C-alpha cells in the first residue's frame, strides 16, 4: 500500500486531508508529517505547499513530492529544495473550472466597468454608466496555454469571446487562435482587448508585463492577472492605468502577498483586487487528483503535470 505523508497546510489541517483521502482513496495510507512516529521512507509520497527549509533533507528521500499549488516557483527557487525528486503540480477538473469562472467574471467586470459600480455603492451614489460592449465583440488574449490557460481559453470561447492564446511551443486548441514564441508576441498583443496572464513564474517571464509591453495592446485594453505578481512591473501598471493605456485591471496575484495596507493598488479606481483566490479546488477534489497522480506513478506512468525543473514549470 502506497503511503502519503501530508505536510501541506500544517498539522491543524491534517484531519481535513485525512478525511478527504479516506473518501476518495481508502487504499492509500495517509500520515501526518508532524506526527512524532512518522519516518519518511524512500517509497513515500509527500504532499506539500510551502515546506520549511529544514524539511528539505527529508524531502530529498521521498519517491515524489506533490504540491497543492499549480505554480511551484516558490519551491524551485528555494535554495536547497530537492529539485531532483519528481514534483507533481496541482491540476484536476475543478482547478480548471474555478479558474475559468474567475476569469469570465473578471473579463465581464472589466467590460462593464464593475469597479465603478462598487465605488458608487460605497458612496451611496446612483450614477448610470451604461456601456454597450458585448462578449462577442471582445477579443481576449490568454498568455500561457497550459493546464489552466487552455481550460480558461476554451471556456471563454464557449462564453462567446473571441479568444487567442500565447505559449512557447506551437499547438492547436478548439476555438482558440494560438500564437507561439517571441516572434508572435506583438501580433498576439495587438489583438487582445483584454489580456489574461496565466504564465508560470520563471526567469523568462518575471517582469514581462511592463509599460512598453502594455503599450502594444489596443489602447484602453483590460488586464487580468491570475499568474504571479512577479510578472508585473507594478509602477508601470499603475502608470498605464493613469495614462489610459489600460481601462482597468483585475489582480488576483500581487507582490508582496498579503498586499500591505499602504499599497496604492488597494484604492486605485480602476483596479479590482482579490486575495489570491482564483482557483483552489476543494480538499476532496485535490485529494482525488493527488491519489490519481500517485496511482499513475505506481503504475510506472508519468503524470501530466510533472514539473520540469530545467524549464521552471
Ligand atoms: P502550465 O505549466 O500547465 O502552463 C504554462 C503555460 O505557459 C504553457 O502553455 C507554457 O507554454 C507557457 N509558457 C511558459 N513559459 C513561457 C514563455 N517564456 N513564453 C511563452 N509561454 C510560456 O501551468 P498552469 O496552467 O497549471 O498554471 C499557470 C500558472 O497559473 C501557475 O504557474 C501559477 O503561477 C498560476 N496559478 C494561479 C492561481 C491563482 O489562484 N491565482 C492558481 C493556480 C495557478 P508551452 O505549453 O509551450 O510550454
Automatic annotation (TrEMBL):
Domain D-isomer specific 2-hydroxyacid dehydrogenase NAD-binding: from-to ranges: 106-278
Top-level taxonomic group: Bacteria
Gene3D superfamilies: NAD(P)-binding Rossmann-like Domain
Organism: Acetobacter malorum DSM 14337
CDD domains from the UniProt entry: GDH_like_2
Protein name, UniProt field: D-isomer specific 2-hydroxyacid dehydrogenase
Keywords, in A-Z order: NAD, Oxidoreductase
Stored PANTHER family: 2-HACID_DH_C DOMAIN-CONTAINING PROTEIN, D-ISOMER SPECIFIC 2-HYDROXYACID DEHYDROGENASE NAD-BINDING DOMAIN-CONTAINING PROTEIN
Amino acid at each position: 500500500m502506497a503511503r502519503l505523508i501530508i505536510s501541506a497546510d500544517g498539522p491543524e489541517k491534517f484531519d481535513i486531508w485525512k478525511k478527504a483521502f479516506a473518501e476518495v482513496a481508502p487504499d492509500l495510507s495517509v500520515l501526518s508529517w508532524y506526527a512524532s512516529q512518522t519516518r519518511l521512507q524512500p517509497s513515500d509520497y509527500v504532499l506539500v505547499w510551502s515546506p520549511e527549509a529544514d524539511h528539505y533533507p527529508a524531502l530529498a528521500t521521498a519517491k515524489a513530492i506533490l504540491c497543492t499549488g499549480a505554480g511551484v516557483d516558490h519551491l524551485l527557487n528555494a535554495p536547497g529544495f530537492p529539485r531532483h525528486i519528481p514534483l507533481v503540480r496541482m491540476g484536476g477538473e475543478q482547478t480548471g473550472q474555478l479558474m475559468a469562472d474567475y476569469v469570465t467574471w473578471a473579463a465581464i467586470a472589466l467590460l462593464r466597468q464593475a469597479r465603478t459600480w462598487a465605488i458608487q455603492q460605497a458612496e451611496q451614489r446612483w450614477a448610470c454608466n451604461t456601456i454597450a460592449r458585448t462578449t462577442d465583440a471582445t477579443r481576449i488574449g490568454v498568455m500561457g496555454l497550459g493546464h489552466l490557460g487552455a481550460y480558461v481559453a476554451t471556456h471563454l470561447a464557449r462564453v462567446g469571446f473571441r479568444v487567442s492564446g500565447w505559449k512557447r511551443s506551437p499547438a492547436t486548441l478548439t476555438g482558440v487562435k494560438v500564437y507561439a514564441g517571441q516572434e508572435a508576441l506583438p501580433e498576439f498583443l495587438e489583438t487582445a482587448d483584454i489580456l489574461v496572464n496565466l504564465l508560470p513564474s520563471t526567469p523568462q517571464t518575471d517582469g514581462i508585463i511592463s509599460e512598453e509591453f502594455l503599450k502594444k495592446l489596443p489602447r484602453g485594453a483590460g488586464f487580468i492577472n491570475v499568474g504571479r505578481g512577479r510578472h508585473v512591473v507594478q509602477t508601470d501598471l499603475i502608470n498605464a492605468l493613469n495614462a489610459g493605456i489600460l481601462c482597468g485591471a483585475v489582480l488576483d496575484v500581487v507582490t508582496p502577498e498579503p498586499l500591505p495596507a499602504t499599497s496604492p493598488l488597494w484604492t486605485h479606481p480602476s483596479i479590482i483586487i482579490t486575495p489570491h483566490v482564483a482557483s483552489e479546488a476543494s480538499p476532496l477534489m485535490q485529494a482525488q487528483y493527488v491519489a490519481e497522480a500517485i496511482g499513475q506513478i505506481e503504475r510506472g506512468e508519468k503524470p501530466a503535470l510533472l514539473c520540469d525543473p530545467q524549464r521552471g514549470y
